[in-house]
Amino acid sequence: MQLSVLSGSRGEIGEAHGRLHAALITHSLEVYDRLFHDFVGIGWAEARTAAEAFLPMIERGFPAILDEMAGIARGAGLDFADILTLNCRSEISLTQASGGCTAFSLQRDGTQWLAQNWDWRTDQLHNVVALELHPEDAPALVSIGEAGMVAKIGMNDRGLGVCLNAIRSRTCGQGLPIHVALRKILESPDLEQAVRVATHDRVCSPAHFLLASRDGQAAGFEVHPGPPGRLPSHAGAVTHTNHLVAETATCQVEDFPRPDSRARLARLDRLLNERLPLGVAIDESALFGILADHDNAPMAICRHFNPQQPPEERMETLFAVVMNLSEGRLTLRHGKPCESTDSLTVHLGAT
Predict the structure, then answer these.
(1) Under DSSP, is residue 46 helix (H, G, I), strand (E, B) or coil?
(2) Angle formed at CA 139 by CA 81 and CA 54, multiple of 5 degrees
(3) For the whole model, what pTM was predicted?
(4) Residue 123 CB: number of other CB atoms within 10 A?
(5) Which of 38, 125, 166, 177 places its Cα 20 to 30 Å from the Cα of 149?
(6) What is the distance between the alpha carbons of residues 240 and 135, in angstroms, rounded to a whole number?
């Protein structure tokens, strides 16, 4: 996978994004047209109508990002409504659909690590893009995500990083759409401002954001329209899969995780304790090894094709990311970490 380096105004960045990845963006629209049909029984036209409800929330909480969305649409030769709908896809579909995803932060010997697998529908594998953005009015950032979307998983040049876990729930209220909130986090100058996205702006549908910074701070935030649940670091680690844990969140939101979510979390905690205890040297290879674990396959941390599931429920690991925030380095393996040997490494804001 190649890195797309884009700079300029938000409109210019968006237009370059749309132009470079027009074919992938169009394919993403086709993927989500099918997904909306499979999970919520609506077509693309109805999804565009549903997405209009989120426009006032974005205008209120992060209006500048709308210029970039408009630029993506121009560059790709699409309507603004198509790009808005793509960036609100979680709010439209996650009442029924829930991906996998296993994420953790780890602080050892003065180095802050952040890592995760992103599990989703196989037909999005080749629509994954790596973007290095240099906006005129915000920190430089790297985002690994889906073509046409403003952000997903990544880090910025201030040493701040974020990972994402999907949460299946019927809750949807006032706040920023998940992927718009992730971009606002990635534009934050420090952890305090990033936390304000979860606590002040709020997020209109449930998800877990794992935040960490190069100074060794890390915490999980189970976001939703109300006060988020907060998961502090324990023994230098924060771990999460796809179910709510913090009482602040569980007392306000009902979630519907897949049965393997708790098993993957228990396995992740065990692996970190057994393989990477205090005093053991850590590098990217060791963390990718955790993400490549196959215990309880095919519903493992490294998720593979499972023919026993209904076609619309078949999720696989589409990429794995390991970030060394202390050194400003992100390493991506596109595809399953157990199979992919080629890595993309991006350096940003190294100290």
Answers:
(1) helix
(2) 25
(3) 0.96
(4) 16
(5) 38
(6) 31
